[in-house]
């Protein structure tokens, strides 16, 4: 089975600054795939490479079998792209925006009208087709953006931070729409995000940090890889507690400031001991199931928002 997206050994530099290093990704057809990472992690650079907006420097990228470097025009036919920045004309109606988009892909007449009706139904905007875009809510504008990139029937949707600026209810609605596109039409969807809760919606994901893939798999597989629940301990004496836990329980955690985090099947027993014997040294303590944040911390040794360098990718605007 050919891949919807293949990224092999991709590297990219901005002058002396390395933005991507040896990135490998394989996305089968009909999957919602997430690129999760903090700002400056390399997501936008990879997005722009896949979208043919940057030249491939090292490695190879293919979209539905078409090579990004040697067949960019074919790649653009196979891709539907939605950028983080809006690309709608607010002074035109939804239908007018779609009509002009269709002309860019050589669509006209009855074929174009049929495609517009189809995509409006797909994103549930058929009753707002005559409304000016400036009068739409944020969620409806995102649906109109999605309709634009579906107009030419792409095999792969490439969405950059698709729910930025939307409230939680609208985010849920948009994700429902994306799942329907995958289930009903077999559309492959690639989403970049810096939001952990967004990544949980994906069938599979790759976590990018400082230009490298540090973890990949389904959200459940990544959480299960930690091998137990997560105990979070806050204490002004966190180093002393870490040494005690290591010698008595043979458990090693990660210290960050006054916080110690440990993932292990035995942390429930450790919790009881700490509360009964070292309560006065604790500021707070909690037990929870592992999260994607815990996965990131375990694989990188630092928190999701603790980037070593500022973002270097140019933004689409």
Give a verbal description of the structure:
Helix content is 36%, strand content 26%. It is of the alpha/beta class and 317 residues long. It has two domains: 5-222, P-loop containing nucleotide triphosphate hydrolases (Rossmann fold, 3-Layer(aba) Sandwich), CATH 3.40.50; 227-289, Peptidase S8 propeptide/proteinase inhibitor I9 (Alpha-Beta Plaits). The chain has a six-stranded mixed β-sheet with strand order 6-7-8-3-9-10, sandwiched between helices. The protein is elongated, with a radius of gyration of 23 Å. The two termini are 36 Å apart. The model is unreliable at 308-317 (pLDDT under 50).
In short:
This protein is α/β, with parallel strands linked by helices.
Instruction: Figure out the total of helices.
Output: 11
- Total strand segments: 14
Largest sheet: 6 strands, mixed
Oligomeric nature of the chains: single chain
Question: Which descriptor suits the 3D outline?
Answer: elongated
CATH architecture label name of the largest domain: 3-Layer(aba) Sandwich
Order of helices and strands: EEEHEEHEHHHEHEHEEHEHEEHEH
Helical percent range?
25-40%
Compute the CA-based radius of gyration: 23 Å
The CATH superfamily title of the largest domain:
P-loop containing nucleotide triphosphate hydrolases
Counting helices, strands and paired strands, the structural category is alpha/beta
- Top CATH class of the largest domain: Alpha Beta
CATH topology of the largest domain: Rossmann fold
């Amino acid at each position: 089975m050919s891949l919807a997206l293949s990224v092999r050994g991709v590297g990219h530099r901005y002058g002396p600054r390395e933005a991507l290093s040896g990135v490998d990704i394989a996305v089968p057809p009909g999957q919602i795939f997430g690129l999760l990472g903090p700002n400056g992690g390399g997501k936008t650079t990879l997005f722009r490479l896949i979208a043919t907006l940057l030249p491939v420097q090292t490695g190879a990228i293919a979209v539905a079998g078409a090579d990004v470097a040697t067949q960019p025009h074919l790649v653009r036919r196979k891709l539907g792209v939605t950028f983080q920045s809006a690309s709608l004309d607010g002074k035109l109606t939804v239908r007018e925006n779609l009509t002009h988009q269709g002309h860019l892909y050589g669509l006209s007449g009855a074929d174009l009208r049929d495609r517009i009706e189809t995509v409006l139904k797909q994103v549930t905007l058929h009753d707002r087709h005559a409304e000016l875009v400036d009068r739409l809510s944020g969620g409806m504008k995102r649906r109109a953006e999605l309709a634009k990139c579906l107009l030419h029937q792409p095999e792969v949707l490439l969405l950059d931070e698709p729910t930025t600026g939307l409230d939680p209810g609208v985010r849920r609605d948009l994700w429902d729409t994306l799942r329907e596109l995958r289930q009903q039409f077999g559309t492959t969807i690639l989403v970049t995000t810096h939001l952990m809760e967004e990544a949980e919606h994906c069938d599979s994901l790759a976590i990018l940090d400082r230009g490298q893939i540090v973890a990949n798999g389904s959200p459940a597989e990544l959480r299960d890889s930690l091998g137990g629940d997560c105990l979070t301990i806050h204490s002004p004496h966190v180093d002393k507690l870490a040494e005690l836990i290591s010698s008595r329980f043979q458990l090693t955690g990660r210290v960050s400031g006054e916080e110690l985090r440990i993932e292990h099947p035995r942390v429930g027993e450790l919790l009881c001991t700490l509360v009964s014997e070292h309560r006065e040294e604790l500021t707070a303590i909690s037990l929870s199931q592992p999260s994607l944040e815990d996965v990131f911390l375990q694989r990188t040794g630092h928190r999701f928002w603790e980037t070593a360098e500022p973002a270097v990718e140019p933004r689409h605007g």
